[in-house]
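Moderator note: this is an archived Q&A kept for reference. The question asked for a predicted structure of one protein chain; the sequence and the answer are reproduced below.
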Amino acid sequence: MWVKNMIPFNKIGEVLHELQNLTDFVIIGDTIVDIELKRKGTESDVDLFVLGVSVLIEDDKIREFAYERGWDYGKTPIDTPRLLVPINDEQLQIDLYENIQDFFVPKDILDNAINVKIGGYTFKSVRLEDYILLKANAFREEDEDELKTIVYLIGEGKLKIDKDYLKNHIEIFEENANSIRERLSSVGIKI
Protein backbone atom coordinates (compact mmCIF):
# COMPACT_ATOMS: atom_id res chain seq x y z
CA MET A 1 0.00 0.00 0.00
CA TRP A 2 1.28 3.46 -0.91
CA VAL A 3 1.59 5.68 2.14
CA LYS A 4 1.38 9.44 1.71
CA ASN A 5 3.98 11.42 3.64
CA MET A 6 3.21 14.48 5.66
CA ILE A 7 3.44 17.76 3.77
CA PRO A 8 4.75 20.49 6.09
CA PHE A 9 2.46 23.40 6.91
CA ASN A 10 5.14 25.96 6.05
CA LYS A 11 5.03 24.72 2.43
CA ILE A 12 1.22 24.50 2.43
CA GLY A 13 1.08 28.08 3.71
CA GLU A 14 3.21 29.26 0.77
CA VAL A 15 0.92 27.51 -1.73
CA LEU A 16 -2.28 28.85 -0.11
CA HIS A 17 -0.75 32.34 0.00
CA GLU A 18 -0.07 32.08 -3.74
CA LEU A 19 -3.67 30.93 -4.27
CA GLN A 20 -4.88 34.12 -2.58
CA ASN A 21 -3.71 35.91 -5.74
CA LEU A 22 -6.62 34.18 -7.47
CA THR A 23 -9.34 34.17 -4.83
CA ASP A 24 -10.32 34.44 -1.19
CA PHE A 25 -11.33 31.17 0.46
CA VAL A 26 -12.19 29.44 3.71
CA ILE A 27 -10.55 26.15 4.68
CA ILE A 28 -13.39 23.67 5.21
CA GLY A 29 -11.69 20.28 5.38
CA ASP A 30 -9.88 18.20 7.97
CA THR A 31 -6.87 20.53 7.80
CA ILE A 32 -8.54 22.25 10.79
CA VAL A 33 -8.15 19.04 12.82
CA ASP A 34 -4.41 18.90 12.02
CA ILE A 35 -4.08 22.58 13.00
CA GLU A 36 -6.00 22.10 16.27
CA LEU A 37 -3.76 19.11 17.07
CA LYS A 38 -0.74 21.38 16.45
CA ARG A 39 0.70 18.99 13.90
CA LYS A 40 3.59 20.16 11.72
CA GLY A 41 1.77 19.29 8.50
CA THR A 42 -0.95 17.17 6.93
CA GLU A 43 -1.15 13.84 5.13
CA SER A 44 -4.52 14.85 3.73
CA ASP A 45 -5.69 17.10 0.96
CA VAL A 46 -6.75 20.69 1.61
CA ASP A 47 -10.43 21.49 0.97
CA LEU A 48 -11.29 25.11 0.29
CA PHE A 49 -14.61 26.90 -0.05
CA VAL A 50 -13.91 29.52 -2.70
CA LEU A 51 -15.33 33.02 -2.19
CA GLY A 52 -13.86 35.15 -4.97
CA VAL A 53 -14.47 33.16 -8.16
CA SER A 54 -17.00 30.58 -9.25
CA VAL A 55 -15.38 27.16 -9.43
CA LEU A 56 -17.89 26.21 -12.11
CA ILE A 57 -18.22 29.33 -14.25
CA GLU A 58 -14.57 30.44 -14.02
CA ASP A 59 -13.06 27.00 -14.44
CA ASP A 60 -10.75 28.19 -17.26
CA LYS A 61 -9.38 31.02 -15.12
CA ILE A 62 -8.52 28.53 -12.34
CA ARG A 63 -6.95 26.08 -14.81
CA GLU A 64 -4.82 28.86 -16.34
CA PHE A 65 -3.74 30.04 -12.86
CA ALA A 66 -2.61 26.48 -12.04
CA TYR A 67 -0.76 25.88 -15.31
CA GLU A 68 1.08 29.22 -15.07
CA ARG A 69 2.57 27.95 -11.79
CA GLY A 70 3.41 24.47 -13.00
CA TRP A 71 0.60 22.90 -11.01
CA ASP A 72 -1.53 20.08 -12.38
CA TYR A 73 -5.27 20.51 -12.73
CA GLY A 74 -7.95 17.89 -12.25
CA LYS A 75 -11.48 17.41 -10.96
CA THR A 76 -13.02 16.36 -7.64
CA PRO A 77 -15.70 13.64 -7.54
CA ILE A 78 -18.36 16.40 -7.81
CA ASP A 79 -16.62 17.95 -10.84
CA THR A 80 -15.11 21.01 -9.15
CA PRO A 81 -11.44 21.98 -9.68
CA ARG A 82 -8.62 20.04 -8.04
CA LEU A 83 -5.14 21.53 -7.99
CA LEU A 84 -2.14 19.21 -7.66
CA VAL A 85 0.88 21.12 -6.46
CA PRO A 86 4.33 19.50 -6.43
CA ILE A 87 6.10 19.97 -3.08
CA ASN A 88 9.49 18.24 -2.81
CA ASP A 89 8.71 14.61 -3.70
CA GLU A 90 5.07 14.92 -2.68
CA GLN A 91 1.97 16.35 -4.30
CA LEU A 92 -0.38 18.61 -2.37
CA GLN A 93 -3.98 18.16 -3.45
CA ILE A 94 -6.19 21.23 -3.08
CA ASP A 95 -9.89 20.74 -3.79
CA LEU A 96 -11.98 23.83 -4.54
CA TYR A 97 -15.68 23.92 -3.71
CA GLU A 98 -18.74 26.13 -3.72
CA ASN A 99 -22.36 25.32 -2.90
CA ILE A 100 -23.58 22.96 -5.64
CA GLN A 101 -25.92 19.97 -5.66
CA ASP A 102 -25.71 18.17 -2.30
CA PHE A 103 -22.53 19.99 -1.31
CA PHE A 104 -23.63 22.77 1.02
CA VAL A 105 -21.80 24.98 3.50
CA PRO A 106 -24.20 27.41 5.23
CA LYS A 107 -23.28 31.10 5.07
CA ASP A 108 -23.24 31.29 8.89
CA ILE A 109 -20.40 28.76 8.98
CA LEU A 110 -18.37 30.81 6.51
CA ASP A 111 -19.17 34.02 8.41
CA ASN A 112 -17.94 32.43 11.68
CA ALA A 113 -14.62 31.37 10.17
CA ILE A 114 -11.60 31.86 12.40
CA ASN A 115 -8.07 32.96 11.56
CA VAL A 116 -5.52 30.14 11.54
CA LYS A 117 -1.78 30.32 11.02
CA ILE A 118 -0.33 27.98 8.42
CA GLY A 119 3.39 28.43 7.94
CA GLY A 120 4.06 32.15 7.94
CA TYR A 121 0.57 33.16 6.78
CA THR A 122 -2.91 33.59 8.21
CA PHE A 123 -5.98 32.11 6.54
CA LYS A 124 -9.69 31.75 7.28
CA SER A 125 -10.90 28.32 8.40
CA VAL A 126 -14.17 26.92 9.65
CA ARG A 127 -14.21 26.32 13.39
CA LEU A 128 -13.70 22.73 14.54
CA GLU A 129 -17.31 22.71 15.79
CA ASP A 130 -18.61 23.77 12.37
CA TYR A 131 -16.43 21.15 10.69
CA ILE A 132 -18.06 18.56 12.97
CA LEU A 133 -21.52 19.82 11.95
CA LEU A 134 -20.60 19.65 8.24
CA LYS A 135 -19.37 16.06 8.70
CA ALA A 136 -22.53 15.10 10.58
CA ASN A 137 -24.65 16.66 7.84
CA ALA A 138 -22.87 14.78 5.02
CA PHE A 139 -22.47 11.60 7.13
CA ARG A 140 -20.97 9.34 4.51
CA GLU A 141 -19.04 6.35 5.88
CA GLU A 142 -15.76 8.29 5.87
CA ASP A 143 -17.48 11.21 7.67
CA GLU A 144 -18.74 8.89 10.40
CA ASP A 145 -15.23 7.42 10.80
CA GLU A 146 -13.72 10.88 11.02
CA LEU A 147 -16.28 11.97 13.63
CA LYS A 148 -15.46 8.86 15.70
CA THR A 149 -11.76 9.78 15.51
CA ILE A 150 -12.54 13.33 16.68
CA VAL A 151 -14.58 11.93 19.60
CA TYR A 152 -11.61 9.71 20.50
CA LEU A 153 -9.24 12.71 20.38
CA ILE A 154 -11.63 14.72 22.57
CA GLY A 155 -11.70 11.81 25.03
CA GLU A 156 -7.88 11.75 25.03
CA GLY A 157 -7.85 15.48 25.82
CA LYS A 158 -6.12 16.31 22.51
CA LEU A 159 -9.06 18.28 21.10
CA LYS A 160 -11.62 20.52 22.78
CA ILE A 161 -15.03 21.52 21.46
CA ASP A 162 -17.58 24.06 22.61
CA LYS A 163 -20.79 22.04 23.03
CA ASP A 164 -22.87 25.21 23.52
CA TYR A 165 -21.63 26.47 20.16
CA LEU A 166 -22.56 23.12 18.56
CA LYS A 167 -26.01 23.21 20.16
CA ASN A 168 -26.67 26.78 19.02
CA HIS A 169 -25.29 26.29 15.52
CA ILE A 170 -27.02 23.04 14.65
CA GLU A 171 -30.19 24.96 13.76
CA ILE A 172 -28.56 26.60 10.72
CA PHE A 173 -29.04 23.24 9.02
CA GLU A 174 -32.81 23.75 9.37
CA GLU A 175 -34.66 20.56 8.38
CA ASN A 176 -31.49 18.47 8.84
CA ALA A 177 -30.90 19.66 12.42
CA ASN A 178 -32.61 16.68 14.09
CA SER A 179 -30.76 14.17 11.89
CA ILE A 180 -27.46 15.88 12.68
CA ARG A 181 -28.26 15.78 16.42
CA GLU A 182 -28.99 12.03 16.18
CA ARG A 183 -25.86 11.35 14.13
CA LEU A 184 -23.68 13.24 16.59
CA SER A 185 -25.26 11.29 19.45
CA SER A 186 -24.58 7.99 17.62
CA VAL A 187 -20.83 8.74 17.50
CA GLY A 188 -20.70 9.95 21.11
CA ILE A 189 -21.29 13.69 20.96
CA LYS A 190 -24.34 14.42 23.11
CA ILE A 191 -25.74 17.92 22.79
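Archived answer notes: The chain has two domains: 7-126, 131-187.
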